């Protein structure tokens, strides 16, 4: 992961990099860390009922899952609402390969490799419902980036279509203070069956709502993960429902409905999360042009 922000590392993870500068740093959604993540992510079902409700509310037949990962949400939708046209959009090469493996013998759902902020022409105006699950909006920490995601989601919608975004309400955001600066270790087996220990930690700044995730897996000489090991990072901002509703209004999306669910598993066990259903209100400009700009600008 070249060009990463050194400030994303904290505590013992920063010390590892300082003591062993050769330690690689990659995104949490790549390599060894994605192998670890997919095992814990796939069984989660806490948001599925809400997304099924969103499908029923929109009454459409086509769904795009942005940041679909291995296809967890689409797998459930295919079984709960047969006949839907289901497409996932995923930027991670590892996740895209995992999707292909998962659905190799399953007709229907398919994944497109790409970035939501550069929507392929084939996906524009093509869906009745576009989802952003697993509080993925937090992965776009700058306001301009979050706006670009919402604008691009709107660009994928057919007339009258809706976008669904999972996000924590402001009343829940302070809960992150309780898991800030927490470090723990979890044993697991990697893709080759080797037993390993994954060290993971989080750091939350309640003033800026920045949430840094750091990970470390130890490696040894001669292994795929060489000595001393590999660092993984995920840099987020914990957006609130209120903030996303305000940003969405400027990108052609208006509130249509809201569902409340409880997170199951992990440090956020039992926390309330909103699923915001936002209806498209106007034709969107291409994501690489600011709202209001002339087509030839």
Explain the overall architecture.
- With 297 residues, this protein is an alpha/beta fold.
- Helices cover 26% and strands 31% of the residues.
- The protein has eight helices and twelve strands.
- It has helices at residues 11-19, 31-41, 48-58, 72-80, 93-102, 143-155, 170-173, 241-249, and strands spanning 24-27, 62-66, 85-90, 110-113, 127-132, 157-167, 182-189, 195-205, 210-218, 229-237, 253-262, 272-280.
- The strands form two sheets. A seven-stranded mixed sheet has the order 4-3-2-5-6-12-11, with helices on both faces. It has a five-stranded mixed sheet with strand order 1-10-9-8-7, covered by helices on one side.
- Strand 5 (127-132), helix 6 and strand 6 form a beta-alpha-beta unit.
- It is globular and about 55 Å long.
- Residues 284-297 have low confidence and may be disordered.
